[in-house]
Amino acid sequence: MKPQHPTVEHLEPSLAEALAALRQRIGAEEAVVVAYSGGVDSALVAAIAAEQRGALALAVTGVSPALAPHLREEAQLQAQWMGIAHRELGTAELQDPDYTSNPSDRCYACKRELHRVIAQLRQDLPSPWQSALVLDGVNLDDLGDHRPGIAAARERGVASPLAELGINKQGVRAISRALGFPWWDKPAQPCLASRFPYGEAISAERLQRVAAAETWLRQRGFQELRVRSQGESARIELPPSQLAGLLESPLREDVVTAFGALGFSAVSLDLEGLVSGKLNRELQGAAGLRSAPPCAAG
Fold first, then answer.
1. What is the 3 state secondary structure string of 40-103?
2. Do 134 and 60 meet the contact criterion of CB atoms below 8 Å apart?
3. d(Cα 267, Cα 237) in Å, to the nearest integer?
4. Using an 8 Å Cβ cutoff, are 207 and 201 in contact?
5. Which residues have CB under 8 Å from 264's CB, separation 6+?
6. Does the model's pTM come out above 0.85?
7. What pLDDT was estimated at residue 292?
8. 92: closest CA among 125, 63, 67?
9. More exposed terminus of the chain, fewer Cβ within 10 Å: N or C?
10. Measured CA distances, 119 to 3, 85, 153 (Å)
């Protein structure tokens, strides 16, 4: 076991107790494998796993065209920072019609594939990895969201220590900040498949086009964003305070040219601004502009 991460900021008593319980929960296992996306939730679980189990902790990231390149890089750098062994495994959800047809439970097919390859990895490794407990970063708030992937994880016996201990997203961020994790305020960034309306087919080419469009915008200083793909059109979502900046010349003309070169036939700017999980609204069966959470976990 490594030395515990020191608390660099005050942590309220209830969260300090939750952190102690998280350490005890993970530390009680002989070996753990963390389904690790690089998001703030799974990063907290991975960091505590590395702290408590040392060489008997392994973080695993599923890699496919649905993972944005910058998120893959961030996951790698964070794993190095926290000192946990990190493996990337290719996943083949794009060969599954239950995923590519993009139904409302698409995330079930995605997580089913992820945990299939994690299970195969465990079987290919020597003892004690074959009996290692698989953990994910599902937090308490996620249990009330539209997250079909949770069911796929449960079918594989995956444990969610954050949710088990009643730690919600706010608690994850507070604990991560108190422990000095640089990514404590990292915004939620669901996989690229979340950019497509349910029922609209997903392919590697379409995912890569969205990834390229978002990369283009990030290179010009826009960090919180979504490029929604609807048919051959792109709809850009930015925080409301940044909407006007994108409309200024020559940037507006540059966006149209760049997105056109990627194969988009039209480009629009969503005047409501960035709302995570916006395309889930259709699942609510209600009219009006209301927010819904994305189905991808952190």
1. HHHHHHHHHHHHHHHHHEEEEEEECCCCCHHHHHHHHHHHHHHCCEEEEEECCHHHCHHHHCCC
2. no
3. 11
4. no
5. 209, 213, 229, 232, 233, 234
6. yes
7. 37
8. 63
9. N
10. 29, 17, 11
